[in-house]
């Protein structure tokens, strides 16, 4: 089946207008009606007793003759004010303000030369001694002497050096008592061993530098980097022992 649609223009008649439309009846609610009487007088109206302005009522104060300041009442009777304040006799009062008829004394002059007088007073004045003079470090009792604490520090250092020397002598005596347990390493063998260690350190350092070119380290690369660092530190410790002064003793294994 083929479907089609009919377009109906609102300007023309339509068959739908022939169908009668059902009119719905709107039910309105009942009209509101107050339960109070609208014709009853308003309660508490101001238009009572011939006083429409202020609402004069019975048993109330008169709006015209109201209670004013300092007026006695039944609840608040007026009491006489007593001035109990008295000026103390020991404290003198201030001088009075001069009146408009008072005139200052004028015409007084002096022949004193204040410039010369001030100069003479400054010349004859005794210089004041400052209250807190600055300390003179050159006159101190311990000036130029070694402080006491430095002597104590030097004493502690000398004691530590004596303990170290005693320990070293004790160790050397133990090696001298058992010479058959240790042998001195020949210088030629020491030089060859130092060269080999330096060559090994250069090879490990080259691998370490290539690995450090990477900006991001993964798990295995980080472990390899730590292994190279540990190996180089061990070689440096061995080189430090081989290059130290004195004979290098090797135990007989």
Task: Describe, in short, the structure shown.
The protein has 253 residues and is mostly helical. The chain contains four helices and two strands. Keywords: Cell projection, Cytoplasm, Cytoskeleton.
Could you list some keywords that capture this structure?
single chain, 253 residues, mainly alpha, 4 helices, 2 strands, 2% strand, flat
How is the topology of this model organized?
Blueprint: H1 114-124, H2 148-177, E1 182-184, H3 187-211, H4 219-242, E2 249-251
Antiparallel strand pairs: 1-2
InterPro entries: Enkurin_dom, Enkurin_domain-protein
Protein name: Enkurin domain-containing protein
GO molecular function: calmodulin binding
What is the radius of gyration? 61 Å
> For the residues shown, what is the average pLDDT?
77
Q: Helix share of residues?
A: 25-40%
Largest sheet: 2 strands, antiparallel
**Dominant shape:** flat
How many β-strands, per DSSP? 2
Gap between N and C termini, in Å? Answer: 111 Å
How much β-strand is present in the residues?
under 5%
Question: What is the count of helical runs?
Answer: 4
Q: Strand order, biggest sheet? A: 1-2
Give the low-confidence spans.
1-10
InterPro entries: Enkurin_dom, Enkurin_domain-protein
Region (Disordered): 28-48
Keywords: Cell projection, Cytoplasm, Cytoskeleton
Domain Enkurin: 152-250
């Amino acid at each position: 089946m083929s479907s089609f649609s009919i377009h109906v223009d609102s300007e023309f008649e339509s068959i739908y207008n022939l169908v009668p439309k059902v009119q719905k009846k709107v039910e309105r609610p009942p009209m509101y009606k107050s339960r109070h009487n609208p014709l009853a007088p308003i309660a508490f109206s101001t238009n009572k007793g011939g006083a429409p302005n202020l609402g004069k009522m019975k048993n109330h104060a008169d709006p015209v003759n109201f209670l004013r300041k300092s007026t006695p009442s039944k609840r608040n009777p007026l009491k006489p004010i007593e001035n109990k304040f008295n000026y103390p006799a020991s404290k003198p009062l201030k001088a009075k303000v001069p009146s408009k008829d008072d005139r200052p004394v004028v015409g007084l002059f002096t022949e004193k030369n204040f410039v010369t007088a001030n100069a003479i007073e400054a010349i004859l004045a005794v210089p004041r001694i400052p209250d807190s003079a600055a300390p003179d470090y050159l006159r101190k009792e311990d000036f130029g002497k070694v402080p006491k604490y430095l002597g104590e520090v030097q004493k502690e250092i000398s004691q530590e050096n004596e303990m170290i020397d005693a320990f070293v002598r004790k160790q050397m005596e133990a090696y001298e008592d058992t010479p058959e347990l240790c042998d001195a390493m020949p210088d030629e063998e020491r030089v060859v061993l130092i060269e080999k260690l330096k060559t090994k350190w250069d090879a490990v350092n080259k691998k370490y530098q290539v690995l450090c070119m990477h900006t991001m380290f993964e798990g295995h690369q980080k472990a390899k980097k730590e292994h190279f660092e540990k190996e180089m530190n061990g070689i440096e410790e061995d080189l430090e022992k081989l290059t130290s002064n004195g004979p290098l003793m090797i135990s007989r294994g």
